[in-house]
Amino acid sequence: MNRCTRAFIYKDNIKFNLEQIRKYVNPSVKLCVAVKADAYGHNAVLTSKIAEEAGYEYLAVASVDEGIELRKNGIKAKILLLSLSTPEEMSDFFKYDITPLVFSHEYIGELIKVSDSYFKDQTKFEVFLAVDTGMGRIGTYPETAGDEAVLINSSAHLKLAGMCTHLAVSDSLSPSDQEFTDDQFKAFKLAVENVRAKGIDPGICSCEASAGLLNNPEMQMDMVRPGIIAYGYYPDEITEKYLKSKGFSLKLKPCLSLETKVVAIRSFPAGKSVSYGRTWETPCDTDIAVLPIGYADGLLRRFSPGLTVTINGKNYPVVGRICMDQCMVDIGKNNPDVKLWDRVVIFGPEESGALNTADVLAKIGNTISYEVLTCLKRVEKDIR
């Protein structure tokens, strides 16, 4: 495929970030990097191989298919499935050695039935118990964790190997949100104690992803699950500046650039409207560069007005509404610095020549870098 709108993944930056995280985390704590959603748009297989080489014990996915893709590409690390599946998918847990999160008597009971049909020997397959401490998504409540652990370990082919929860507002600096995070941690520890009270080893206990790890390093427990920081971005309010103010240091490098080329330059007189809705008119005679990238490529419609793109070391504004497949840029009249077929960088790391990062786009679009990175579904990706 020769389309000029492409993303480029900087594999050395992924390696750098994973090594920085390893230095930041307590040496005894296991590491589980989130490679779901194609590693936040960074190529799950590539990222998983780098993580294995860096000594990461676990990889986290969101679907069975994501786990199968890793196994079919030779990934040997443990794979933790963070979302629930249907009974039709459950036998693939065993076939491809994918460790599921489980909870509720109904879900665990269904998995027991499937495991009893699948295994003909004394195999004990590891599962993690999901605990809902305030996220309101999936998980048993702390007071029922012990009973569900008993159900797991009383089955012929399942074994409790760990417990996980997810922090809902650990990326916030507000006092009430920090108090809520503290309450979640207390609730999770209660769930763990309730499992121990049943005479069951809770296994690997984990409650922190990127934000919690940075904002509450005392909650690392047995394993942490970094996601966005592996790809070079800080989670919401937990910035590099904030970390330094707390006496911590974690240098990160963005790992992906989004690029295209100028495919047309058009001269417009003053008062000419550009794009759908006629939301922008040329204030004076100017030239407009047309780029073959739009919201179907992840350049969200709401990024304009406000978005600038980098051409030959300078930023130029995207004007008018971003279309599905194209957008327009005001480059000024007779600009010698912008020519037909010139490379355009939407965002990326410093070495890409970009003057924007995904965080810049996220602020314009009132979203987060996670969404900016994971919505590049139509864009082919190369490795640098």
How would you portray this structure in words?
With 384 residues, this protein is of the alpha/beta class. The chain has helices at 11-24, 36-41, 44-53, 64-72, 87-95, 105-118, 145-154, 175-196, 210-215, 240-245, 358-364, 369-374; strands at residues 6-9, 30-34, 58-61, 78-81, 98-102, 125-130, 158-164, 204-208, 223-224, 256-261, 264-268, 273-274, 280-281, 286-291, 308-311, 314-319, 327-330, 343-347, 380-383. Strand 4, helix 5 (87-95) and strand 5 form a beta-alpha-beta unit. Helix 1 packs across helix 3 (44-53), helix 5 packs across helix 6 and helix 7 packs across helix 8 (175-196). The mean pLDDT is 97.
The computed structural class is alpha/beta
Please state the average pLDDT score: 97
Largest sheet: 9 strands, mixed
Strand content: 15-25%
Q: Tally the helices.
A: 12
In spatial order, strands of the major sheet run 11-14-17-16-15-18-10-1-19
Instruction: Calculate Rg over CA atoms.
Output: 24 Å
Q: Describe the global form.
A: elongated
Report the helical percentage. 25-40%
CA-to-CA gap between the ends?
17 Å
Number of strands: 19
Low-confidence stretches: none
Task: Offer a quick outline of the entry.
With 384 residues, this protein is an alpha/beta fold. The chain has helices at residues 11-24, 36-41, 44-53, 64-72, 87-95, 105-118, 145-154, 175-196, 210-215, 240-245, 358-364, 369-374; strands at residues 6-9, 30-34, 58-61, 78-81, 98-102, 125-130, 158-164, 204-208, 223-224, 256-261, 264-268, 273-274, 280-281, 286-291, 308-311, 314-319, 327-330, 343-347, 380-383. The chain is elongated.
